[in-house]
């Protein structure tokens, strides 16, 4: 599976591998300690930078528009 | 406005289904999902795993068409999910980010352990659509529900595909482990 940032590909692969293993073997069996945090931090920083470079502001996109005053109105 | 709901039972345990759900993409049945990134992940005070993911999808149209109509080639969707391991409930909420000032499609999936059979998992899906200033006419609504049914079927097939893959890997690992043991044990018993 690809990452939104091509440069984050390898970091994503390593994090996903760590997460999938931890999730199935530890989290579902009651262990909450997540050893993948350091890998995640590096991967997350890369993704944030890639989004910035692509000018994608996720927070802004997530702001509720429909049903609020920001909703585009049909031309009168 | 809620336009579509669906229920499905997987003949696999909740643990298996949820583990496979994280590995759902890529799969041959959903080729338009081209990217998936974890934006945030944490475990809350109650031990629930919360994740926020960004999904990148392609329209499946050639680049020149996209340019012609002024569309970006990649569309984005945001997914928030919660895994509750104690109660065996996995809830996902996703909605489009692209075109969200015109139309919002919100989809919710809930995977929970089957109420009467712990070896089965129940999936309940629901979609709501909000369209900018226009009532959702019945033809458009029918198109969307047909598309959702189609995608839901593909999604379920994709899940079965991934569950199969995960189980096969587990079987192969067990076979390898047995082989190792068969090799090692006779040698150690002679020590």
TrEMBL record, chain A:
It comes from Elysia marginata. It catalyses: a 1,2-diacyl-sn-glycero-3-phosphate(in) = a 1,2-diacyl-sn-glycero-3-phosphate(out). The keyword Zinc-finger does not apply. Belongs to the TRIAP1/MDM35 family. GO terms for biological process: phospholipid translocation. It comes from the Eukaryota. One of its GO terms (molecular function) is phosphatidic acid transfer activity. InterPro entries: MDM35_apoptosis (IPR007918). This is TP53-regulated inhibitor of apoptosis 1. GO terms for cellular component: cytosol; mitochondrial intermembrane space; nucleus. Keywords: Disulfide bond.
UniProtKB/TrEMBL annotation, chain B:
GO terms for cellular component: mitochondrial intermembrane space. It comes from the Eukaryota. It holds the Pfam family PRELI. InterPro entries: PRELI/MSF1_dom, Slowmo/Ups. Residues 1-171 form the PRELI/MSF1 domain. PANTHER family: MSF1/PX19 RELATED. This is PRELI domain containing protein 3B. It comes from Elysia marginata. The lineage of its organism: Eukaryota, Metazoa, Spiralia, Lophotrochozoa, Mollusca.
């Amino acid at each position: 599976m690809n990452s939104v940032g091509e440069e984050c590909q390898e970091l994503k692969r390593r994090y996903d591998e760590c997460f999938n293993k931890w999730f199935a073997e530890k989290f579902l069996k009651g262990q909450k300690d997540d050893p993948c945090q350091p890998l995640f931090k590096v991967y997350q920083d890369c993704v944030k930078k890639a989004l910035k470079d692509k000018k994608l502001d996720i927070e802004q996109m997530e702001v509720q528009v429909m049903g609020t005053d920001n909703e585009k109105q049909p031309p009168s | 406005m809620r336009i579509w709901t669906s229920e499905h039972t997987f003949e696999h345990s909740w643990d298996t289904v949820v583990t496979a759900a994280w590995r759902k993409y890529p799969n041959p049945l959903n080729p338009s999902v081209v990217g998936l990134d974890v934006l945030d992940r944490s475990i809350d005070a109650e031990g629930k795993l919360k994740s926020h993911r960004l999904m990148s999808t392609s329209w499946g149209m050639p680049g020149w068409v996209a340019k012609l109509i002024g569309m970006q080639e990649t569309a984005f969707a945001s997914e928030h999910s919660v895994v509750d391991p104690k109660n065996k409930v996995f809830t996902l909420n996703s909605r489009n980010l692209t075109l969200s000032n015109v139309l919002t499609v919100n989809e919710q999936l809930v995977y929970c352990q089957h109420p009467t059979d712990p070896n089965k998992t129940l999936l309940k899906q629901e979609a709501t659509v909000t369209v900018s200033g226009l009532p959702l006419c019945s033809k458009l609504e029918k198109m969307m529900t047909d598309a959702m049914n189609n995608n839901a079927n593909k999604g379920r097939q994709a899940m079965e595909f991934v569950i199969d893959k995960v189980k096969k890997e587990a079987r192969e690992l067990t076979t390898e482990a047995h082989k190792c043991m068969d090799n090692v044990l006779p040698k150690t018993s002679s020590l």
